[in-house]
Amino acid sequence: MSDSKNSKQGATAAKKKAAPAQVKTNKAELNVALSKKGEVKKVDAKKAKAASNPLDGLLWLVSLALIVAAIGGNYYYTQFLMVDESSFARLGRVALVIVVILAGLGVTLFTSKGKRLLAFGRDSYTELRKVVWPTRNEAMQTTVIVFIAVCVVSLFLYLCDLVFLQIVRVITL
After folding, report:
1. Which pLDDT tens digit goes with each residue over 75-86?
2. Residue 31, class by beta-carbon neighbours within 10 Å (0-12 exposed, 13-18 middle, 19+ buried)?
3. Structural contact between residues 115 and 109, judged by C-beta atoms closer than 8 angstroms
4. Distance in angstroms (rounded) separating the CA atoms of residues 145 and 147
5. Backbone angles phi, psi at 143, to 5 degrees
6. CB atoms within 10 A of CB 30
7. CA dist 141 → 66, 132, 135 (Å)
8. pLDDT tens-digit profile of 12-57?
9. Per the structure, how many domains does the chain have?
10. Environment class of 144 (CB within 10 Å of its CB; exposed 0-12, middle 13-18, buried 19+)
């Protein structure tokens, strides 16, 4: 009996050692990271942010410059340079503005926040593939049930409106 008790305690202790310690962090104060040895290291939030990608500021600046140039250039062209523009020329100008804005937004994907956004998108797509979608028959049945429920509630609200209208007419006359 004591052998089984000791083996259970040993297994529990092994599980506790294998699981890394989870520590709640406050982003405003300090981030806590676990090293390979299991030691807890305190990392300043500003240092962690600066170490993420040294080119982030430059990439954000380039992105902002591209977007402002596209919008400002389009405005300047339409207000001061355009004399008479054909449909084909307008299509080309609009396409150029769209391409430059998309390039500006694409540059943001190379920043640390952009990389996190892409990772979030990949994770979301992975989760979306796990969804069990209803069959056509289930979708049709659910649609009919919702339609009937909406009709019943609408009829109830219409009848309430008629009753209250009659009550207001009796009171005001």
Report:
1. 988 888 776 778
2. middle
3. yes
4. 5
5. -65, -45
6. 15
7. 50, 17, 10
8. 555 445 444 444 444 444 444 444 555 555 555 555 554 567 889 9
9. 3
10. exposed
- The whole-number pLDDT of residue 28 equals 42
Please state the length of the chain: 173
Q: Does 85 lie in the same domain as 26?
A: no
Q: What is the dihedral of CA 50, 55, 57, 59, to 10 degrees?
A: -150
C-alpha–C-alpha distance, residues 19 and 22, integer Å: 9
pLDDT, tens digit (0-9, with 9 covering 90-100), for 69-112? 999 999 988 888 776 778 888 888 899 999 999 999 999 999 99
- Quote the distance between the C-alpha of residue 164 and its chain's center: 45
* Residue 172 shares a structural domain with residue 106: no
Domain of 13? 1-52
**Phi/psi-derived region of residue 38, left when phi > 0, alpha when psi is between -120 and 50, beta in every other case:** left
